[in-house]
Specification:
- With 253 residues, this protein is mainly alpha-helical.
- The protein has ten helices and six strands; from the N terminus they run E-E-H-H-H-H-H-H-H-E-E-H-H-E-E-H.
- The strands form three sheets. It has a two-stranded antiparallel sheet.
- Strand 1 and strand 2 form a beta hairpin.
- Helix 2 packs antiparallel against helix 5 and helix 5 runs antiparallel to helix 6.
């Protein structure tokens, strides 16, 4: 399979890329589903909109800043390259970090339980990732090394692992799994922590296949961060689960 043209269409000489369209679609669906699901978790839908107003621009800035920092040798001194996000270069971990910070601030302002809000939004984060990863396909980026597998894609005349596809499928399944678990949630924070564990588990293995990873010395930073997230989330999961089983902590159910 050969990656198609990264440009969807042009308006007065301005190219509109599939990368931006797909990321925008992911945001829109995520916001809509979060808005509709909010009352089921005892959160006002309007508070979701308050969160999204600040989260969307700041998360994009965070995702870009994170990527640029780890690729500084390429971007140093070239402001045009730094601002050109249409051609790719958004790191999901940077967006997640900033998004969580915004969530904490909004929850503090509206007096919402932070973990409850995170439980609400993380299934939709997985859905957004499942959609947005296809932008990497159109940009012929975030792929793996050479492969003879029948589902490999052609990039620069070479058949390679479609790592964007692996992550897209996993995140789509993760979205439906988290929605299902939400109905059986045992404690506040369970959904957010499951996202952290399961997404990081997938990212660790898929990152091993990628050829364009951001690095921390000799290590792939996404793998290092994924391991850290898995360990922290597992510890918190066990702690909150045990806390929820205590008769004196029924409010955590």
């Amino acid at each position: 399979m050969q990656a198609p043209n990264p440009v969807a269409f042009s308006i007065m000489g301005f190219d509109v890329r599939w990368y931006g369209i797909l990321i925008g679609l992911g945001f829109m669906l995520g916001i809509l589903i979060s808005y509709l699901r909010a009352p089921k978790l005892g959160i006002k839908s309007d508070h979701v909109l308050d969160f999204c107003i600040f989260m969307i621009p700041l998360a994009i800035i965070g995702a870009r800043a994170y990527y640029v920092i780890f690729e500084w040798e390429y971007y140093a001194g070239d402001i045009k390259k730094i601002l050109d996000i249409r051609s790719g270069g958004l790191a999901i971990h940077g967006g997640l970090i900033v998004g969580i910070i915004v969530c904490i601030a909004v929850c503090k302002y509206h007096k919402i339980k932070i973990l409850n809000m995170l439980d609400l939004i993380f299934p939709q984060v997985a859905l957004g990732q499942a959609i947005g990863r296809w932008g990497n396909f159109f940009n012929s980026e975030a792929h793996g090394g050479p492969t003879d597998l029948p589902w490999g894609i052609m990039v620069d005349g070479e058949k390679v692992h479609p790592t964007f596809l692996y992550e897209s499928i996993w995140c789509l399944l993760l979205f439906f799994f988290l929605l299902y678990i939400t109905k059986k949630r045992r404690f506040t924070g369970q959904i957010a922590l499951l996202y952290g564990i399961l997404y990081s588990l997938e990212r660790f293995f898929v990152e091993a296949l990628r050829t364009d990873s951001l690095m921390i010395g000799p290590f792939k930073q996404a793998q290092v961060l994924s391991l850290c997230v898995i360990v922290v989330c597992l510890i918190l999961y066990v702690y909150l689960y045990k806390k929820s089983q205590s008769p004196s902590k029924e409010e955590n159910q």
